[in-house]
Design goal:
6-stranded mixed beta sheet; binds adenosine-5'-diphosphate
Length: 282
């Protein structure tokens, strides 16, 4: 059996003369939670749209579960679920009706049982008869996730699954995604939240201006540049930072400089700044 369930090789996409996906290659292992981390406009949604057959790239190779995306898109559509960035639900129908119609369109077997199972999975069973228009943003997001899972896909693509949601709901959605992994699903998600990439993703690819700059586990990506960040606010209020390999190195540096400082563990934002010279949420 192949180790990689998603293989992307040398993918390119240009919009209006601007390269928005620029020679992107990466692989996703079966059963892993893989994240594309980058700021708005980096090209994440375009990559997801290409992999889910909605947008044609200019060049490149994509294999999903061994199927060639360009030759066998129908086979791929049958094994993937997609959670787009917008909650594209029918707001005038109930929670149950939204899933029922989607299930009929996708010929889901044993549909009623499956709807119950999925609504319980995202903890919305109690709201099955509510109109979608009466649900909070977080509930609508959970419903879109339940809908994507309804046909029991083996791979799930989520585009910014927690954007705009408050931290508590964000964590609840992470739990749903982790539970999906324990059921053997492969998850590819995009995010511009550092915390989401660090806490949820087993491997992360950092993307900026259409290019993948680094791939690895959050730990590996951080260890490549250091372990601790020493911070000092200078006289005109500017934050100055030094990256150190060890705590000892950090304290030694500060003893030499003789200035007030704080030391904290490195995070993926520091990795992003190190690679691009800018902050991710700018
Ligand atoms: P992200 O998901 O990382 O925010 P996108 O993939 O949505 O990034 O966008 C990458 C770039 O491509 C942006 O500059 C965006 O404006 C541009 N873009 C995306 N879709 C289109 C389109 N249909 N037509 C023209 N430009 C587009």
């Amino acid at each position: 059996m192949k180790e990689y369930i998603i293989e992307v090789k040398n993918l390119f996409k240009t919009y209006e003369g601007k390269r928005v996906v620029d020679d992107v290659s990466f692989f996703v292992k079966k059963g892993e939670i893989f994240g594309l981390l980058g700021p708005n406009g980096a090209g994440k949604t375009t990559i997801i749209k290409i992999l889910t057959t909605l947008v044609k790239p200019d060049k490149g190779e994509v294999y999903i579960n061994g199927f060639d995306l360009f030759k066998e898109p129908q086979k791929i559509k049958k094994i993937i679920g997609v959670v787009p960035q917008e909650n594209n639900l029918d707001r005038d129908l109930t929670v149950y009706e939204n899933l029922f119609i989607y299930g009929l369109l996708h010929k889901v077997k044993d549909l009623k049982r499956r709807i119950e199972e999925m609504l319980k999975f995202v903890e919305l069973w109690e709201r099955k008869d509510s109109l979608v228009s009466t649900l909070s943003g977080g509930m609508q997001r959970r419903l879109v996730i339940a809908r994507a899972f309804l046909p029991d896909p083996s791979i799930l693509f989520l585009d910014e699954p927690t954007v705009g949601l408050d931290p508590q709901i964000r964590r609840f959605i992470w739990e749903i995604i982790r539970k999906a992994k324990t059921k053997g699903k492969t998850i590819l998600l995009t995010t511009h939240y550092i915390e989401e990439a660090e806490n949820l993703c087993e491997r992360v690819s950092i993307i900026h201006r259409g290019k993948l700059l680094a791939i690895g586990t959050p730990c590996e990506l951080k260890e490549r540049i250091g372990r601790f960040v020493v911070e000092h606010i200078n006289g005109d209020g500017r934050l100055i930072q030094w990256i150190c390999k060890t705590k000892e190195e950090a304290y030694q540096l500060m003893q030499e400089k003789k200035i007030p400082f704080s030391v904290r563990p490195i995070n993926l934002e520091d990795v992003f700044i190190n690679l691009t010279g800018r902050r991710i949420e700018e």
